[in-house]
Amino acid sequence: MGSRVCGGCLSGLLIPLALWSIIVNILLYFPNGQASYASSNKLTNFVWYFEGICFSGVMMLIVAAVLLVLENENNHKCCQSENCTKKYMTMLSIIFSTLGIAFSGYCLVISALGLVQGPYCRTLKGWTYAFEGTAGRFLTDSSTWVQCLEPPNIVEWNIILFSILIALSGLQVIVCLIRIVIQLFKILCGTYSVIIQPGII
């Protein structure tokens, strides 16, 4: 009962994390609240991967909903014995938790790449990736950020939002990993037998 409650709390935690991922990703399209840069395609290319909206957002909401259903004690039996039903519920939980790691991991990687690449901005040489060749060293050298003349404060905007996306998706990965560990603990430590004995069904 305790592991079921714990699993349900973890699944529920994925929902606000996914909603925040969607919100943060949307903000990346509107530097300083302006929509003109998105409409003229003057944003970093990594925002068009929809990592926070689709993968760490909508897909994670679906994963969380499925996991919450699997944790529901009133699930219909999928086979004749209770042990058999628990087996399939556990396997499905592991599969969807693994999918959750894949979705949130994608968001984490893309956000990290966007953070290291730096923003697409207007410099004295025109619109370009001013920090693309710095391997992320510009992140700790704020004196170089003045190279980006437009959008205003775009370096800070990208650093803050991509960092938040990394943190949110990282938490999602951790939650899904913990869920997998809980399910494996049930299997390996005898919470119930996964192998159905002859004559049970």
From TrEMBL:
GO terms for cellular component: membrane. This is Transmembrane 4 L6 family member 18. Keywords: Membrane, Transmembrane, Transmembrane helix. The keyword Transmembrane helix applies. The chain crosses the membrane at residues 12-31, 46-70, 91-116, 159-182. InterPro entries: L6_membrane. PANTHER family: TRANSMEMBRANE 4 L6 FAMILY MEMBER 1-RELATED, TRANSMEMBRANE 4 L6 FAMILY MEMBER 18. The gene is TM4SF18. The lineage of its organism: Eukaryota, Metazoa, Chordata, Craniata, Vertebrata. Belongs to the L6 tetraspanin family. Signal peptide: none annotated. It is found in: Membrane. Pfam families: L6_membrane. It comes from the Eukaryota. Its main location: membrane. It is a multi-pass membrane protein.
